[in-house]
Amino acid sequence: MKGFVFHGPGQSSWDTVPDPGIKDATDVIVRVDAVTICGTDLHILKGDVPEVRPGTILGHEAVGEVVEAGSDVRTVRPGDRVLVSCITACGRCAYCRKAMYGQCRDGGGWILGHLIDGTQAEYVRVPHADLSVHPLPSTLDAKDAVLLADIFPTGYEVGVLNGQVRPGDTVAVVGAGPVGLAAIATARLFSPERVVAVDLAPARLDAAKRFGADAVVDARETPEQLIADLTDGMGADVVIEAVGVPETFELCTRMVRPGGHVANVGVHGKPATLHLEDLWIKNITITTGLVDTHSTPTLLRMAAAGRLPTSQLVTHTFPLDRMEEAYDVFAKAADTGALKVVLGGTRHEEVAVRAAEEKDVRSYA
């Protein structure tokens, strides 16, 4: 089969690699239908995630069809169309029992495209399948569903839920990339008074408006002052960091009000300064986190009902074998306007369309 292989910082290629096989009784093999590229993949290529060994197939998000299942798999079987979650969960360890799947102690957590071969290939082995793949409604298009493997759960759980967004809050989202946009969209579920998006790219600020931001501001134009003006000098109740560089984290700590929350979502490859000389007295809560994906079933139901703006995030599509071109487009988002690129995603489209048409006919019967 073919897969996108990491060969070291700055080096990757679409290579011929061995087909995966069942190793444990809880594994499934999924034939990949659609994948997407994450900002974390770009961090890996830059060398920011040293745990990824050369020779690893990248990717941790996919939609596909189960073609083989281990003898202990109970929730799916060959032929099932599934979402492959970015997080693998054993379901038995102390963390999984608390739904903290990202911290799984029995061969789970973020392992796909990190510690084992990932999804950016024609086939992928998924361990602990019962909690790590999700059956998909036939009406949900692959290009929409694949965004629920990581982007929407991450923005929602690590940003909105960790930040404890509440009705009437002022929420600032620093970074209007895919995760930031997902945070904006899901923050709206909690009826904040306003959501403010901060970014450098005009195209992403425009996208933030479409996803529900009430105000946008260029990061170079003192966003702290805008937040102060909007809140009578108090600051934002919740600030979500969705970039992953020292400057944006430090900006977030300057924008939050006393008693507020800073929810860090971004993947950081360099140290950031924590100005405790200013923050110690302000009752600030700072959270970090790897997504647990405990919200994925809920988000899948919402997406199937048309309650999430998933399709608006997809700006570019490619065949699977144009992975290198897709990476180039995604990495140059400031020039290309890319939000999310999706590769593949055509195998089940006709089936989904037919199912949707049948549903419409039944609704008027």
UniProtKB/TrEMBL annotation:
InterPro entries: ADH-like_C, ADH-like_N, ADH_Zn_CS, ER, GroES-like_sf, NAD(P)-bd_dom_sf. SMART domains: PKS_ER. It comes from the Bacteria. The keyword Cytoplasm does not apply. Its cofactor is Zn(2+). Residues 8-343 form the Enoyl reductase (ER) domain. The keyword Metal-binding applies. Keywords: Metal-binding, Oxidoreductase, Zinc. Gene3D superfamilies: Medium-chain alcohol dehydrogenases, catalytic domain, NAD(P)-binding Rossmann-like Domain. Belongs to the zinc-containing alcohol dehydrogenase family. This is Zinc-dependent alcohol dehydrogenase family protein.
